[in-house]
Amino acid sequence: MNRTKADxxxxxxxxxxxxxxxxxxxLLAVQPVxxxxxxxxxxxxxxxxxxxxxxxxxxxxxxxxxxxxxxxxGQMIIGxxxxxxxxxxxxxxTLLVSAGLMLGVLFLGVSDVIVGFAAxxxxxxxxxxxxxxxxxxTGFLQWGLHMWAVAIVxxxxxxxxxxRRGVAMRLSAATFPILGFMAERWAGHIIDAVAVxxxxxxxxxxxVLVAAQIASGFASVFGLTDSSAMVLVSLLVITALPxxxxxxxxxxxxxxxxxxxxxxxxxxxxxxLLAGPGNWxxxxxxxxxxxxxxxxxxxxxxxxxxxxxxAPAEHSLxxxxxWIIWAPFTGVFLVSVSRGxxxxxxxxxxxxxxxxxxxxxxxxxAGAALFLELEQGVLIADRVAAAPExxxxxxxxxxxxxxxxxxxxxxxxxxFGVIMMDSxxxxxxxxxxxxxxxxxxxxxxxxxxxxxxxAAVLLVAGGLHAVRSLVVIAALPxxxxxxxxxxxxxKALRFEQGRATASLKHETAVQxxxxxxxxxxxx
Length: 523
Prior knowledge:
- 77% of the residues lie in helices and 0% in strands.
- The protein is built from 22 helices and no strands.
């Protein structure tokens, strides 16, 4: 088999990357107090000194996404120039929506809104309608246009070169127009190594959050006491299931539960609307969307200035960091299922249908909790602040039929958690090995093991706060690499468009009557 310069096995020094991950995990396990202290110090530096870089990066991604959609590049096909879509419109939209739900909207999208209601920014009284308005506006900001835009442009940058040039799906491939052959040597090694480590940290963080929610849901449904041991057991199960399926080559079956999982979430949301204050929630959603869009520029660009001493702003900084790290993974999925469609249709659809669906889920589930506090006098925010992982199940338990609602939520959380682990291990293998490598199965299992071990050690050593802090830190070195890749992508688009325009002019000149007559006369 011929091996191109763009895809050698030494592309990512896999052994070195794994050694760094093992060393950090071991240090965290042996010296947890010292390591967590170091993480907190680094997190404090990021929030007080360089948080604006995170804000500007995601803002630039949103501007770039809109530019690509409505510029001359919008008509370009994702994939080959004559490629057709692989999925029907309905199946395509379902896959896009599942990507948003898989990112933890059932946990973070509900708990952070309620926590923000109990601890708003300075000058706003907690547990008031004004605090609820700010909490929802912040939640929509965290799960709205910026989140999808970062994934869109990153996925396009990575997949464009893979689909058009046949190179590996790696962030370094998009830097070739800028770095030249250095992107295939030491510079590319560093870019890919940083991407692998950051993606693993994000996967471990997501695993901790999902495992904590599943353990809380299991305890709520079966009347047990939630504990760290239950979280570790949940973590083990979520990691072991895809591992077993990979070893027996049955992992593809996991992707078949995406649509049923989306259906379960839809049934959950509909049940809350019917069993709860449906009219109030729908009005609350529409009002929250209006507030979000009307105040988007000010709220989006103001985060960096107040991060470090403001709880909602620090939460948003965590989201920006997570989207930056997780963008290659989510973006590759979004672009891959959109192959064969125009760039404009992909961007417009992704920034509308799945985004609105995600925000609607947040508004209904988090709004149900705010309704209890504001209209019914049920004290639930303080309980959520004490145990954020239990937020969804505490809320659902206040409505009838609470048990059925909690079972639906538990099924959905478990399904998306297992899918996330399976897809994450696939992506880590994709960016750490060349296509066709005989080591793909064993390396995929290795990534599952490393993700599970890192998640378990993080959970025991520092809890959810340490997980969030590490994600914010890990995003810092990814930012310049992401911007470099986007610059390379834009340069490649200009070249592609210029070549297409030149080809069209040549064909027009050849087919024009004047050219034909002149050519006939010369004969």
